[in-house]
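Apologies for my clumsy wording, but are you able to produce some protein sequence, whichever is easiest, and the tokens describing how it folds?
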Amino acid sequence: MPGIGPKRAMALEARGIATVGDLIFHLPVRYQDWRERSSAKDLRAGNIVVVEGELGKISERPMRGSRWRRLASGWLDVDGRKIRVVWFNLPAYMRGYLPGGERVLVRGRVAAYADGGIEIVQPELHRLSDGEPKGIRPVYRLPSIVGQRLFAGLIMRALAEAGDSIGGAMPDELRAEVPTIRDALTYLHDPPPDADFDALWNGESRGHRALAFDELFAFELALSIERMRSARRVGIALDGSQSLGAKMIEQLSFNLTGSQARAIEEIGADLARPNQMNRMLMGDVGSGKTLVAFWAMLRAIECGHQAAMMAPTELLAEQHWRGFARICGRLGVRHALLTGSVTGAARNQVLRGLASGEIGAVFGTHALIQERVRIRGLALGVIDEQHRFGVFDRAKMKALGPKANLLMMTATPIPRSLAMSLFANLDVSFLDEMPAGRTPIATEIYAEQDIERVHDSLRAEIGAGGRAYYVVPFIEGDEDEAKSVSATAARLKKGALRGARIGTMHGRMSAAEKDHAMREFRDGAIDVLVCTTVVEVGIDVPEATIIVIVAAERYGLAQLHQLRGRVGRGEKASRCCIVGSSDADDVALERLATMRECTTGAAVAEADLRLRGPGDLLGARQTGALPLKFVHLIRDHRTIERARKLADEWIARDPSLASRESEGARAAVRKMLALGFSLGDVG
């Protein structure tokens, strides 16, 4: 397309925009309203305004301390009143464009200036000699080398030339009053002058609703197809002796929670049927999911079969293996560990034991689904932190035992009602109670300028024998070096935590390096682990009593809750220090403050989805995560129900989506499957 050369094409592709389809479905992140103009007497500090006036001469100069950043300033005559306009770090596309001496519209935030005056900071300009601007102007999230006007022009050209080929999932006869996808996109990219600005801003316009409904229709179709597949799958019925599971529960030094007992009953009923179980076990960090999974594994073993549990990291797989030995070691079940670190004769011995059926329970990582692994009588596969695995990994797990039952576990906070709607292709068990004796975690909110108070708390915890996680957003070489793992670790060693043993961990390290760092922290060789969010998967370090999360506004509440769950796993009181950046806005800080009140995963999930919208439900987009781009999961709950009803009716009418009317639906479902659709689709 005109205006897109190799550099811009590469920058756009890095944002996921490589085709005309990507282009037109890249929606505005916000909108600007240029329709109402303010007079000079109505200007108040803090307001965003549009004013008309004559722009005087603009002067530019390099900013002090940075020759690449330019400061530009001048005066705007509005009804005879001089108002200063200023740009800190003038955008490159505006250099040489500023039209001194012309009549212009200026849009920007009003700020107080010296001597009681006011100024408009970082304003956008529109020359009135070019005619009136669009009343509502879309704003896109773009690479810096792609201008807003260029991008908007590309979209309008693409809609004009390719618009007739844009189809939706929903058959025309079901669409009724719902706008077509082309009409919805045109509305969102080029809102009419009378559009409801608040609805556009909040993602509630007719265009937004049309895209969400079409997407949900495709999603619910895929769920319907998966439900029909599941109903036809023959499984291994585990309806024999129940002695091992009963003995495990008898030997526990504590009582099961009510929700654990319910989950065991639900899973047991599933396993006794001749159809494959496809169940999700959802529970907060520390709610006892692993114990329920051990019971299910014993159920398979006491019926003469085998069970396997797959975890995303070696350390977590080893933790489960050790936990099984501690809880079930006296039951006479032979169990083994199979990870990348198990090599040579030890690995061969495990492989022989699995192939012969002598090993009843195996715990491992991706190593379980390697080519040489054969499990003679697999009747149950358990996948922990299942969203860390792609759909094909889960399919390979089931391929180890084609009739095996599947139990997936996740600590990702998702509201119960939402889970029941979205994961209708799965049976879901919820652990919504915490075991007795869990120490509550104190959550404290800090501004960045108060970081020394946080460091005082760190020193106190370490001095008392505790250990600390220190989470920062960046790895060395990223956009903010000061908040990178390496720079933060070096700064703490020289300053606030001088004398403490400090280690590092981040996502660019190899699996072996991350495993080594985590082992050192677990075993007490280091006191403080400076890391990125790679620590959010559930490793137990009972001695960890404090976690510090820097630039916390960058994360969703669900992810913050996962990180908070790294502490509070021992008998000592623990704390989570959430630190907001100095440039975080009031909305972001208010969102962080809700973490004090939201102490359970369910409360966090409701708040996160209410405040952030869908974003990506699981934090960072991964293969196997929900492929929903336009749906606001809390606000659109009625739309979810309506879309499911229509999808069920349509699939009953055209089960294979083979008709001409189902062409769009067929393409949309295929696209969802290509994205690694759904948390439960392993078929």
